[in-house]
Amino acid sequence: MDLSKLEIASASDEGIRMEIYHPVTEQSFDPPIYVWVVGVDSETWRKHTLALQNKRLKKMTQRGRIRLVASAEEIEADNIEILAKCTLKWENVEWGGKPLVCNYDNVKMVFTKLPWLREQVQAFTEDRASFLQS
To answer: What is the pTM assigned to this prediction?
Structure first.
């Protein structure tokens, strides 16, 4: 088996388009909403994950004390931050009836206010099959 055919990092770095579906009906929106994201095997994902881990390690050992537990809120905030930094662009996203520019702050806001959307993106980015070239 030629394992080079299963190399995922390149596609993960370039980003892949995913479609967002309605959280209840699982139907496409009209017009369809698309989000381009990098995968967990991308250099971008790795860089931001390591930066957050280093920040947490530094915080854990501040003032000579060790705090080994992260709160659920801190873990959720970290996940949102990584996903926002790994979202490259989107299409047909509106907020309050107006088109919403895809930038870090807007992506973070949407992922915070719409956990169902964040969960779709998270599942897609973690599914290596999404980035495997056929």
So the answer is: 0.83
Whole-number Å distance between alpha carbons of 46 and 61? 23
Residue 111's CATH number = 3.30.2220
d(CA 62, CA 64): 5
Total domains in the chain come to 1
Tell me which residue range forms the domain holding 21: 3-131
Q: What is the pLDDT of residues 32-60, one digit of tens each?
A: 999 999 988 888 888 988 888 888 777 77
- HEC-encoded secondary structure of 8-70: CHHHHHHCEEEEEECCCCCCEEEEEEEEEECCCCCHHHHHHHHHHHHHHHHHHCHHHCCCCCC
What is the rounded CA–CA span in Å between residue 70 and residue 72?
Answer: 7
16's CB contacts (< 8 A; 6+ apart) are: 36, 37, 38, 39, 124, 130, 131
